[in-house]
Design goal:
single chain; alpha/beta; UDP-galactose 4-epimerase, domain 1; 2 domains; two-stranded parallel sheet; 17% strand
Amino acid sequence: MKRVLVCGAGGFIGGHLVKRLKSEGFWVRGVDVKAHDFSVSAADEFVIGDLRDAQVVNNVLDQRFDEVYQLAADMGGAGYIFTGEHDAQVMHNSALCNLNVLDAAARQKVPHIFYSSSACVYPQGIQTDPEQTGLPEDSAYPADPDSEYGWEKLFSERLYFAYQRNYGIQVHVARFHNIFGPEGTWCGGREKAPAAICRKIAEASDGGEIEVWGDGCQTRSFLYIDECLEGVRRLMESEVSGPVNIGSDERVSINELVEMTAAVAGKNIRVKHIPGPLGVRGRNSDNTYIKDILGWSPQAPLEKGMRQTYAWISQQVSAR
């Protein structure tokens, strides 16, 4: 039985990843600074610990795991990342987690380690058009991310590849594009657009109004959690280091996402556009590379995932 460590197992993607790995027969140790907000972890062992503390990392990475998944980060949606109010802690906290985990993994001679990077590494100057067709992996340089979160992610990518060169760890780096689904943050300021829109529409009455930052013409692609995990597992089973986009290439404007969610909810919703942090104007995943190297790319339509996500968030709103 393979033994794996999931860092960030108390988070949205990490919690789902633990379930996926257990379904495949792995023995899993999870670690996070907090327990999962919405479910009991499926991990064989779950450690509450702060990965910014090197001793905590040494304690949880006390053996040669077959695989390590490093998803722990200080992050959130536009309301958290793009205000500028959290830049120092975002960079400090996430960088420390990566430095500590890589150092311990090298000492334990871990053969495979996964790192979750982000589409936020791509230069803001090539994301000014809402009709942006897609971001190929090699377009990350010359570097000019749109946030300090993106700069830290790009630094950490380079850190992982340096450890691969110098210590022989096989790294696998994925750039996630807006992962969403049930059991993710849906209120409190760190939620991302799909969850925020689901919450607002669930709270609104039929014929009611919700607020949307900006003119709503900014575009993104959003990937449902199940397809994200499929991409992660395929990448880890390969010899590909990456970085590799793991995202949908179904581009949608925020206004279109509101319309889709309102239709899912069966409600007529009016939109009030207000000032707010927006990020880049247009972002979409280019999946050419992942198709070439893995023979796979995400295919499920966005609406399918939004139906499942809205149903779950609507339950949370009703139970609040």
